[in-house]
Amino acid sequence: MTEASYPVPAEWAKDALIDAAAYDRMYAEAATDPDAFWAKEAKRLDWIVAPTKIKDTSFDESDFHIRWFEDGQLNVAANCVDRHADARPDAIAILWEGDNPDESRKISYAELRDEVSKLANCLKSRGVTKGDRVTIYLPMIPEAAFAMLACARIGAIHSVVFGGFSPESLCNRIHDCDSRIVITADEGLRGGKTVPLKANVDAALDHGDLAVETVIVVRRTGGKVTMTEGRDCWYADCVEGQSTDCAPEPMNAEDPLFILYTSGSTGQPKGVLHTSGGYLVWASMTHEYVFNYRPGEIFWCAADVGWVTGHTYSLYGALANGATTVMFEGVPNYPDHSRFWQIVDKYEVNILYTAPTALRSLMREGDDWVTRTSRKSLRLLGSVGEPINPEAWNWYHNVVGDGRCPIVDTWWQTETGGHMISPLPGATALKPGSATKPLFGVLPELVDADGKVLEGAVEGNLVIADSWPGQMRTVWNDHDRFFQTYFSTYPGKYFTGDGCRRDEDGYYWITGRVDDVINVSGHRMGTAEVESALVAHSKVAEAAVVGMPHDVKGQGIYAYVTLNANAEPSEDLRKELVQWVRREIGPIATPDILQFAPALPKTRSGKIMRRILRKIAENQLDQLGDTSTLADPAVVDALIAGREEAT
Ligand code: ATP
Ligand code: MG
Fold first, then answer.
1. Beta bridge partners of 550
2. Torsion 281-287-292-295 (CA) sign
3. How far is Cα 138 from Cα 153, in angstroms, rounded to an integer?
4. Sheet of 232-234: strands edge to edge?
5. How far from 192 is each of 140, 223, 331, 605, CA to CA, in Å?
6. pLDDT at position 266
7. CA-nearest residue, atom 15 of ligand 1
8. Which residues contact 530 (CB under 8 A, 6 or more apart)?
9. pTM (2 decimals)?
10. Is the ipTM of this complex over 0.90?
11. Can you say how many angstroms the Cα of residue 138 is from the centroid of all Cα atoms in its chain?
12. How far apart are CA 250 and CA 130, in angstroms?
């Protein structure tokens, strides 16, 4: 496949926060003198006690520890709210857009401080203190931001559970971190449909032997819910009469800020724990540099707060930098497929950050939905969550961005706290499908199965050789699992679990999970490559490729394909697609089986759950494992039914 390259546009090179020379200089400084580099970056925050000890970390088993800014004290909410409320009280912090386009709300930094403080006082009055866990199970409404920041203000640890999770998943997460308090809403609203959040909480609490004493309920839709006397109370009643004064709790830099369970695409979800100082420095720095954020710009991260992108960029990074952040309750295709672009025009969004899965779902509906809107406010586009296939990249660039806006393809993980490998728009020439180069303080290496470091243009397993401030500190309740999962495979290094290729220019290309690298007749191949080829066909909307046992080749290629709205599955099309991949990549990549699938199994954050596809391909239907974190478990039955016909 061709590897087109897009140089930094002239106006960006001239006017960027960080240009190519600055990138090189800062990268070298962070690598050679991390203490000096991070002492400087830490100044972006207001500290109660400024840190003097900067980096104290070791990935070695005998002396394993990760501490950043360890003698510093700060409060995250004070950094994200108060300092801006003092300086620019009327500046807009949150632009909230409801599921229904007629509903919206503007929240200034001064109002945000009042709302956060009232809820913080309410939590305190209910006995929540520093270090307690608070589970937040809310839709994308301003109260979700108030709740997270209220926890941060008093030093409670929040655990946000995505509003689409089932009672069982919610129950497991409440249990794992032992929350005594849950904040939820009567119902959520997505795409015109209600989601029974409070009923799910009730079911979760019936499910298990949980310690929950208080459930605070936001009235969102006014739908009927059952309130349990003595346990449940309405949000409005709880905050009524609470003071808007609440002194932020001084927190040590290494005190926990939140727990977030990973999406579970590779196994049982882990309670990823992030701390205060290092995380916020990382969130703020990456938000500013990667998005080239300038004061006054409108920033929209379309991710739900239920996953890490919503935490770090909708909320913490954006607000730490005093940005105006757009919060959208709904879905990209309601009331119609133009909704994203209507929101861009309505709020004159400058920076849009979304996931390839959303782009592909919009792309399949045709360009008209996009081109009928203006989008002239857009300056920069971002992508996150999975490798973006060049087809979707080009569409994002040419159709959404009218060829004007650079795309930052940001590789990172819940575990990393923020961006790790990403272009900087004023510094990095872009190659569609590549996350390009590491950010400051990120030391990526590619290693082979034995841990030998590979040099030059090569493919291998992606590890990070040293600590960075935004890194997770532990798996909640299971420090041993933290060490085992991330530091034992390649001793002394953080193992990402991702496969990756580095090209001649030192650009990184994530090829998918290491588990997803397949070996066909001795040729190692990233599944992402075959998927990109399939999606490049005009009739294909989405594809997922997994390995399957093959007598001759060792592993064969099993492809699941979802077609565009205007295409029908047929035997001819199946043959055409197989030939197409053969032509695009080569005979070695010819799919052995190609199954048309009405939909693919995805996690709540939009990631394809390949372990399920692998089991179906291997015909091990009794070993599908935990499917409770799927967005739509019914998809699995349809896939099993479709297997018959494909094989
Ligand atoms: P679990 O760890 O429970 O399986 P998860 O890994 O799906 O959950 P996340 O932390 O949200 O949860 O996902 C991180 C992964 O997403 C990365 O390891 C990588 O595989 C993929 N990813 C994220 N952004 C990109 C990107 N820009 N390009 C390629 N892959 C990406
Ligand atoms: Mg992961």
1. 554
2. negative
3. 19
4. 232-234, 214-218, 181-185, 133-137, 157-160, 256-261, 271-275, 474-475
5. 14, 14, 9, 20
6. 64
7. 413
8. 543, 545, 557, 559, 581, 585, 589, 591
9. 0.90
10. yes
11. 17
12. 10
